[in-house]
């Protein structure tokens, strides 16, 4: 097991090096950027510090992780020349949120979480940019919404999330196994449905 502090570039580079050593000469097929944080700030109470901290974790962290692991992802893709884009070839999956959907603005009433929403909207754009920039290397890139899940972060308020961790993970694994060329650059949920930007 290898961990990295996503707000620390040195930690990220060290983690990529450790993973590279463990893989030997083979590449990395799948990078899932899952780290995330939120603060329950209303629009009027949002601060520069909160915005910066959350954007650093939720958006810059996935960017730096993807950059650090790119050589290993390229190596995996090169090991499957000619095959179509898929998670078994090489893929970056950024765990996003429907809270980052500008069109949907999911659950605005009960919780503003402005910094979280903004960071996930930016992560969605990063995912789209990665899909364009890394396609030539044979790497599939998507943003994936796990649903509103019963986790420490998801269930922190007074409302109870409808999904268990097991339900969400089972759904996401099914989606990951079915992703193909047509899905790169998309924003999907744990059931494989398109989430509006």
Structure at a glance:
The protein is α/β, with parallel strands linked by helices and 197 residues long. It contains four helices and four strands, in the order H-E-H-E-H-E-H-E. Helix 4 (165-178) links the parallel strand 3 (140-145) and strand 4.
Largest sheet, strands/sense/barrel:
4 strands, parallel
Strand order of the largest sheet: 1-2-3-4
Q: Could you state the order of secondary-structure elements as H and E?
A: HEHEHEHE
Strand segment count: 4
CATH homology superfamily: NAD(P)-binding Rossmann-like Domain
* Poorly predicted runs: none
Characterize the overall form: globular
Overall domain count:
1
- Overall mean pLDDT stands at 91
**Structural classification:** alpha/beta
Assign a percent range to the helix content: 40-55%
CATH topology name:
Rossmann fold
């Amino acid at each position: 097991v290898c961990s990295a502090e996503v707000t620390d570039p040195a930690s990220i580079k060290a983690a990529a090096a450790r993973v590279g050593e463990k893989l030997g000469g083979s590449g990395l097929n799948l990078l899932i950027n899952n780290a995330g944080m939120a603060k329950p700030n209303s629009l009027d109470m949002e601060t520069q510090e909160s915005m910066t901290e959350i954007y650093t974790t939720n958006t810059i962290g996935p960017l730096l992780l993807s950059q650090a692991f790119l050589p290993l992802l390229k190596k995996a893709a090169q090991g499957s020349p000619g095959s179509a884009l898929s998670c078994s070839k090489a893929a970056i999956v950024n765990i996003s949120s429907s809270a980052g959907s500008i069109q949907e603005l999911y659950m605005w009433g009960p919780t503003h979480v402005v910094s979280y929403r903004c960071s996930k909207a930016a992560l969605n754009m990063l995912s789209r940019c990665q899909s364009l920039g890394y396609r030539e290397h044979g790497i599939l890139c998507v943003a994936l919404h796990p649903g509103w899940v019963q986790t420490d972060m998801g269930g922190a308020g007074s409302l109870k999330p409808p999904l268990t961790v097991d339900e969400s993970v089972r759904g996401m694994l099914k989606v990951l196994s079915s992703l193909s060329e047509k899905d790169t650059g998309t924003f999907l949920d744990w059931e494989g449905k398109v989430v509006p930007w």
